[in-house]
Input
Amino acid sequence: MKKIYNEEENYSELLKDLKNLPKINAPENFELNLMTRIQNKNFGYSEKNKPQFSWLKFLTPSAVVVTAVILFFIFLPNSSEINIPVTNQQTDSKNSIENKKQNIDNSKNEINSTHDIVKPSTPLSIQENTASNARSRFPINNPRAIKVDDYLSGSNTNQKEISRGNVVRSAEEPAEINRFFIAENPDRLKLEKERVRLDSIKKAQAKADSLKKIKK
Amino acid sequence: MNKPLIELTDEEVIKEFQDNNTLEAYDILVKRYKDPLMNFVYRFVGDRDICSDIVQDTMIKFYLNKDSYRSFAKFSTWIYTIAGNLAKNELKRRRRRSIFSINNSDDERTPQIEDKMYLAPDRATDSEIKNDIIQKALIKVKPVYREVVILRDIQDLSYEEISEITGLAIGTVKSRINRGRSQLQKLLKHIYRE
Output
């Protein structure tokens, strides 16, 4: 208490002047203005605090959404360009099945019409179809392909000494395959059979080479 | 036994206004507090027009929110709290405006304290000049200190009342008053020799 008293004593002059500052009074029309505001319900202050609808608040997020949608449609790749290999394969297989059915129906008709001659057209046509389908599904570069028999007998017209391994080299060029295939797990038995087959081919090739030399 | 409204205490008058929505009761309270509030807000903000608007808004707030007043508090502290909050909001608004203002010169932002020596002698009397200088110095004191100094040294309120108005502990009120006075004295050192 003593301390406060001392402090007040320090500022005694200042405190005296502050107390003697002239009192500010409200303007004469203060009450009249206030009552008019109340009667007219012109509560400016409370209206200021009310959350008001503003176009800016509404338009900003909507503009963002609209631009996002527009950009999505601009940069969206054409749906027709999208190829799904699995579905393509399915359509291929469906087509082949339908072809087979048609062929079978045709052959039945032929059989009915002739009654005498039994033609093996149905299995052949199916085989041809399956072969062509297989070719279409696994397109091999035909001009560069080598027949194994021709290659072994040495009568291959397509191939020269330089172009050995043509098929392998062709892999460096852009592949003609325009789709993906479903990978299958290799069968061990099949692989061994294939290995044995290749070994026998190599042996036969070696024999053929030695015979050629003898002939010469 | 019914006393006329004008003879009742603030708390009794506001009770009447709360219970019966008597405009006369409201009018009596407006008459009692318009000048003290005007003085308080003017010393705090330093602008007559703005201070008049703030006091009007205070009275409107009191009219609209009369039921939020609880009888355990003094009416004077309640109405001073409303006015003080509105005055502080006004200061914040001004500060924001001055930040985004293009003409943001220091001269506009902080009022300069005129030196007594440079004022023309025919302009005003000595006491008027002094009062002007004190008011400008008061505006330069930090708002947290300014508020309590005005309430204590100009409005003559007790520490307890100031504590209720500001929501601060009495000890904090006292220390803030002391710091405010010290700041003010430093600003007016050419008038008061330390």
